[in-house]
Specification:
With about 240 residues, this protein is an alpha/beta fold. It has eleven helices and six strands. It has a domain of about 160 residues: Rossmann fold, CATH 3.40.50. Strands 2-1-3-4-5-6 form a six-stranded parallel sheet, with helices on both faces. Helix 2 packs across helix 3 and helix 5 runs antiparallel to helix 6. The radius of gyration is 17 Å and the shape is globular. InterPro entries: AB_hydrolase_fold.
Amino acid sequence: MTRSRGPLVRPERAVLLPGTGSDEVFVRSAFAGPLAALGIPLTAPPPPRGAAVTGGSLDLLDELAERAGRPLLVGGISLGAHLAAEWAVRSPHRCAGLLVALPAWNGPAGGAPAAVAARASADLVAREGVDRALRLATSGVAPWLAGELRRAWRRHGTGLAAALCAAAGHPAPTRAALRQLAVPVGIAACADDPVHPAPVAHAWAAALPRAAVHETTLAAVGADRETLGRAALLAWLRAARGVPR
């Protein structure tokens, strides 16, 4: 659907949250450069520890919005994207837009691949410990992704299994909830990602009143992390300017 173009109002700050078992280091590597090119500073907080990763992230967005005193551009990767969208639905007056990278499901997780993977990883960590779990989980995985997992999982420490369980059990916004959001939403999807299927990203976009999807690949992200951030921002610019989906 085509909407009339309007002036693009740049938010003064973006706050982006990491995905399940990931960390703010990866968020910065993907988004800091593309946001800086638009003159938007990035705040990428570390994930709260353990089971507090979901509720604690929502509380943190409340705190940062209160401190800013004006609407924020919010978003994240996978679980971080879900939580940012949930917060935006709850606090629409505080949200200037959404950057959604790799959404994994709508509503209850059920048997979504990302939730199944998180539960399996939690069981593995609880049974084997972080170091052996990493050796098993990264066997046969692309080197760049294995490196990201080794750093992030170790940084989560003893709270990793609880964080993975909390993420797998936390519902994403329903499509009905997404229909309430009037802000522009940019969605990044990876066409070769079986854990975060691209059709889920397109289902989010279909539900949202002002949204666009830009697809890339995990292979491209492996070569240049900013590929993921650029995809989300390009989609957000299209949504903000009313470019057809």
